[in-house]
Amino acid sequence: MRTSKALGVTGLAAILLSAAVSLPGISAEASAAPVKTIAKHKDTTIDLSTDRVVIVMEGRDLNTAARPSDLEADFVTKVGLLHDRGIPLTGINVYDWTGESKPLVHAGNSYASWPQLDALVNDDGGALSSEGRAHESLKNMTPAQRLSDTCGVLQDYKARGFNASGMYAYSGGPYIDSYQRSLVSTCYAFGRKYSTGMNTMSKIRYPWALKVLSLNGGCASRAAGCFGGHSPKTYTPSAWLTDHFTPGVGQVAVLQIYHLFQGHGPTWDCDSSRHQTVKTEDYCLSDVTAYLDSLPASVKFVTIDDLAKAVGRGPGQLSSGPSTTSSRG
After folding, report:
1. What is the C-alpha separation between 209 and 176, in angstroms, rounded?
2. What are the start-end ranges of the E strands in 99-237?
3. Which residues, in sequence order, are bridge partners of residue 256?
4. Are 277 and 254 in contact (CB under 8 A)?
5. How many alpha carbons lie under 13 Å from residue 116 in its C-beta half-sphere?
6. How far is the first Cα of the chain from the last one, in angstroms, to the nearest whole number?
7. Are 157 and 193 in contact (CB under 8 A)?
8. Nearest-angstrom CA–CA distance, 34 and 143
9. What is the band of 66 on the pLDDT scale with cuts at 50, 70, 90?
């Protein structure tokens, strides 16, 4: 079982204060105080045959749904809580939904800003991956638009000082094998493929699809429903994660999180013995930390870029795709 450490990184502390947010039950000033410095995550070497690996990813770099931070953990808080455990976060980013100087609000949700992503990568040692320009399905695009949404957008990230080639996350629907083979695999290390399973690292190969578990909320009982509604999925208990999503030797478990809640609200209950949320992308923060803290000390927490380098598909090891254009088509 892992033990967590005290939060204390200068860059992360500064952005906590500037964003006027705090960790649950702790003031922003106290959260930012450098009680004990934890080193920035550095590139980690992975032995594909013997290591046990976990990658934690934030879906769409969600900030909040305009709720107070004592109810829903915002982006900076999630980065801090992971960093407190020595875990780097890999953000899955929608380019056009990223705020220039502060979190951007779109369709009722708030998304991380470029300064927050800069702190994630350059201060904390996290990484970025791409979910395209505007969270649209490749199926609904022209060939020029598909190129722009995949390989093309990487040039725009590069112009801002970021690498996002670790993974392409298919927006608005499932993994599409034909596009993965002909387009995405030419400029990204991996393409996201939803699964409840883990990856055997020595068997990750062309077309470079990577299994990712999207951490689902839901009612404790789909039949009974909850909060006056019915969820499409049943809530995933933290015990299930510990039992079924702890990597063995030579495996990598990739966990994707979205909205993380505390307490009790109109559409979630993270207080009672039966945690539940009526929305699929909502989950209880305490269950995430319970799972992470249950993992053996031998598990390596890495970024998507660390894994990409381990299989020979890191930055500089890939082509620019069929074209390096960043035209929107």
Report:
1. 10
2. 104-106, 109-111, 127-130, 167-168, 190-194, 199-200, 209-214
3. 57, 214
4. no
5. 31
6. 50
7. no
8. 50
9. confident
For residue 198, is pLDDT > 90?
yes
- CATH number among 3.20.20.370, 2.30.130.40, 3.40.1280.10, 1.20.140.10, domain 10-310: 3.20.20.370
Indicate the angle between helix axes 10-19 and 75-83, nearest 10 degrees. 150
Residue 277 is encoded by which pair of tokens?
A: 């949320």
The tokens for 170 are: 């298919």
pTM for the complete prediction?
A: 0.88
Q: Once rounded to an integer, what is the mean pLDDT over residues 23-45?
A: 54
- Helices and strands of the chain, counted as H and E runs: 10, 16
Structure-token pair, residue 328: 């929107």
Q: Does the pLDDT value for residue 13 go beyond 80? A: no
Contact 231, 280 (CB under 8 A): yes
Reference 189, options 326, 323, 312, 88; nearest CA is 312
- Residue spans of the domains in the chain: they are 10-310
Q: Give all strands (DSSP E) within the chain, no chain letters.
A: 52-58, 89-93, 104-106, 109-111, 127-130, 167-168, 190-194, 199-200, 209-214, 251-257, 259-261, 264-265, 268-269, 276-277, 282-284, 299-301
**pLDDT value at position 237?**
95
C-alpha of 305 from chain center? 13
Question: What are the distances in angstroms from CA 257 to CA 8, 271, 285?
Answer: 23, 19, 10
Residue with tokens 């638009």: 145
